[in-house]
Write a structure and sequence with these properties.
With 308 residues, the protein is an alpha/beta fold. The chain is built from nine helices and eight strands. The radius of gyration is 23 Å and the shape is elongated.
């Protein structure tokens, strides 16, 4: 199959179930079917026909079980055509601030409920199960998502209050970012994240929050004292992670409006993925996502509420 370089080429090349299936078979199997049940690879698996037409259903010559190329991928069991899945993935990844389920439902002619399910499933597959450790000069910061307008001036709802806000901790270098929802920003929580995500010996750039204290034995810490009006020190700053927070919040507020605590981590995954692939073209980002699409992450009980 020829190289796809744009959305127009994607739509013209992957325009029906057969072309999409053949694309996925070529991508996953390099043209030689692999049984997902017994891992047997063969050009001679049985091709089962329906009314005289082959539509991608194989029978393994070794274990005799049936399979298709979508088994073991995020598309397994879905009644949504692959061409709609591919188009949804492309436009979702190419929108810098995301796309609402209402907009996607109009774009690909599905219900809003179906579009929300598709977007949620894509976000689930963006998760980094075991993120590679950060090293070198690492910026770290925490932010708080949420807060209702009616509580804006209420006592105890500003700053680091957890009354109606959700804490998110971010780690960033020039190459990539990782954001994780946390129960709080206590010393124990922050230290656990640091030891899990950042190699010892790295330079850790933070603000003056006391939760970062007590790390001098393992890291070189640079403190940017924002409370004193200092925003850079000897060339070090936290502008990168603060810029990421700004982009995340604008996207959440402008595109999704309201995000529940239960799903906030998925939205953090979404914006981190776009940041980490920011140097790629839209089609390169689509192809970069395909290895993730070819892994099925089971997300228990994707609720049937309609969210934007």
């Amino acid at each position: 199959m020829r190289e796809i370089k744009s959305l127009i080429e994607l739509m013209s090349t992957l325009h029906d179930k057969n072309s999409c299936r053949e694309f996925l078979e070529q991508y996953r199997w390099q043209g030689v079917p692999v049984c997902p049940h017994c891992k047997h690879k063969s050009e001679h698996h049985y091709k089962l026909k329906n009314k005289g037409e082959f539509d991608g259903l194989y029978k393994c010559r070794h274990c005799k079980k049936r399979f298709t190329v979508t088994v073991g991928t995020m598309f397994e069991g879905s009644k949504i055509p692959l061409e709609k899945w591919f188009y949804a993935i492309y436009i979702f990844l190419s929108h810098k601030k995301g796309i609402s389920s209402l907009q996607l439902s109009r774009d690909i002619n599905v219900t809003q409920k179906t579009a929300w399910f598709m977007l949620t499933k894509i976000r689930v597959n963006m998760a980094e199960d075991k993120p590679k450790k950060f090293s070198g000069t690492v910026q770290m910061d925490e932010t708080y998502i949420g807060g209702k307008n009616k509580n804006k001036w209420n006592k105890g709802t500003q700053g680091r209050s957890l009354k109606d806000k959700i804490p998110v901790v971010g780690v960033l270098t020039e190459e990539r970012v990782y954001a994780t929802v946390t129960p709080n920003t206590s010393k124990d929580v922050l230290h656990a994240i640091i030891y899990a995500l950042i190699k010892e010996g790295s330079t850790l750039v933070t603000d003056g929050w006391p939760g970062y204290n007590g790390l001098s034995h393992a890291y070189k810490r640079i403190i940017i004292e924002h409370n004193k009006g200092i925003y850079a020190k000897d060339g070090f700053h936290t502008n990168g992670i603060e810029g990421f927070w700004s982009h995340l919040k604008r996207g959440l507020k402008g595109t999704y409006h309201v995000v529940s605590h239960k799903y906030l981590q998925l939205y953090c995954n979404e914006f981190a993925y776009r940041y980490n692939t920011r140097t790629l073209t839209d089609i390169q980002r689509f192809m970069n996502f395909m290895p993730m699409a070819c892994i099925r992450h089971k997300h228990a009980k994707l609720i049937e509420e309609q969210h934007k």
